[in-house]
Amino acid sequence: MHPSTNNRPLRILVLCNKMPYPSNDGGTIATLNMIMGLTAQGNVVDVLAMQTQKHNFPLEKLSPELTQNINWHSVWIDTDIKIGKLISNLFLSKNPYNAERFMSEEFRKKLIWLLQNDYDIIQLEGLYLSCYIPTIRKCSKSAISMRAHNVEWQIWQRMAETECNLFKKIYKKILSKRIRNLELSTLKKIDLLVPITKNDAEKLPFKPECTFVAPTGIEPQKFVCGNAPEIKKSFFYIGALDWEPNQEAILWFVKNVWNDIHQLHPEWAFHIAGRNAPDGFAHELEKHPIVYEGQVASAQKFIDRHNIMIVPLLSGSGMRIKIIEAMAHSRCVITTTIGAEGIDAENGKQILIGDTADELKRQILKVIETPKLADEIAQNAYSFTNENFNNRQIIVGLNDFYKQWLQL
């Protein structure tokens, strides 16, 4: 792709199904870094975000860095799961309940008001904003770009495969099929697709010439080379603990891997941090020899304190942003093939991968018994992320892609 020679700034409206600040999970980090990157390219960026119970922040309290060149708008929406509505949706609708939770007349009205502006691009941050495409088409001639954070149906398909409860298994299979239908129908309604990984681009049937893979990038100043951990004999995990695939992965790992490792090497600790953990999940963790820290004030400081990251993901899709952040902070990461999806790091060189309990145990014992290996992996990981996940470079490419498509 040839860079655009036209320096006219783009006018972009970004729609978010959750407030991207504070950026304390993979989705909000991906969205905020994208917004900041597009703004740094000199574009005029407006944001319309949903304020929800889990993701909310008063716009008037945003820092000057976030408001100087970005116009923020938000609408409060109750997206909490309601059992009655879930059951009604299951039997009376063909739409996935996940999507129906984000349908809001107030949000639609605010969107119509904003569409009085002449935008070049309207960027949907995820599939569940697709219900607003008819409104956009009716009120605007702007190009619609969808940023695919994941292949959504694949997440639920994988969770269905590992689900033991028969009724939950059936429901997740139904949900996966409905989300797949929504995903396929949405691809016929948009102009541009911006998946986060090459794997996701291959699974989403869309025109290659209208597709630009834009992984979540890290700002260059946040790369930290060779910083020694405060707690050397420590493994750690950090992520959103209200996300079912994360809960599933951690409990499986603790029961099938960590308990055995701890018996062999009780001098090593496993620290777990994350927000919004359900009480039952947190209570289950406390039964095992781990250090549960709950929500921490700073994810970066938590990463810097500890030594080796563990991400035992069994289901999910897209890219694990916390893995990229840990690698950018010179940390060795041990994960599964699913956990490493979209990162394209080489097993044994920039990352360590194991999919079964025995494979993960072997990788963990390697780094315990050969400390130099963990150091080498960490340094290689730092170089790899610096070369491949520099946010400024990624956004320059996306900006040129948009301008080329718009023929600017």
Description of the molecule:
By secondary structure, the chain is of the alpha/beta class. The chain is built from 16 helices and twelve strands. The strands form two sheets. A six-stranded parallel β-sheet has the order 3-2-1-4-5-6, sandwiched between helices. A six-stranded parallel β-sheet has the order 9-8-7-10-11-12, sandwiched between helices. Strand 4 (121-125), helix 6 and strand 5 form a beta-alpha-beta unit. The protein is globular and about 65 Å long.
Properties at a glance:
single chain, six-stranded parallel beta sheet, 44% helix, 408 residues, 12 strands, alpha/beta
Shape descriptor reads globular
- Give the number of helices: 16
Q: Please report which band the strand proportion falls in: under 5%, 5-15%, 15-25%, 25-35%, 35-45% or over 45%.
A: 5-15%
Radius of gyration: 21 Å
Q: In brief, what are we looking at here?
A:
The chain is of the alpha/beta class. The chain contains 16 helices and twelve strands. β4, α6 (133-139) and β5 form a beta-alpha-beta unit.
What topology emerges from the helices and strands here?
Blueprint: E1 11-16, H1 26-40, E2 44-51, H2 64-67, E3 70-76, H3 83-92, H4 97-100, H5 105-114, E4 121-125, H6 133-139, E5 143-148, H7 152-162, H8 166-187, E6 192-195, H9 198-203, E7 234-238, H10 244-264, E8 269-273, H11 279-285, E9 291-294, H12 299-305, E10 308-311, H13 321-328, E11 332-335, E12 352-353, H14 357-369, H15 371-388, H16 391-406
Parallel strand pairs: 1-2, 1-4, 2-3, 4-5, 5-6, 7-8, 7-10, 8-9, 10-11, 11-12
Helix pairs in contact: 1-16, 7-8, 10-14, 14-15
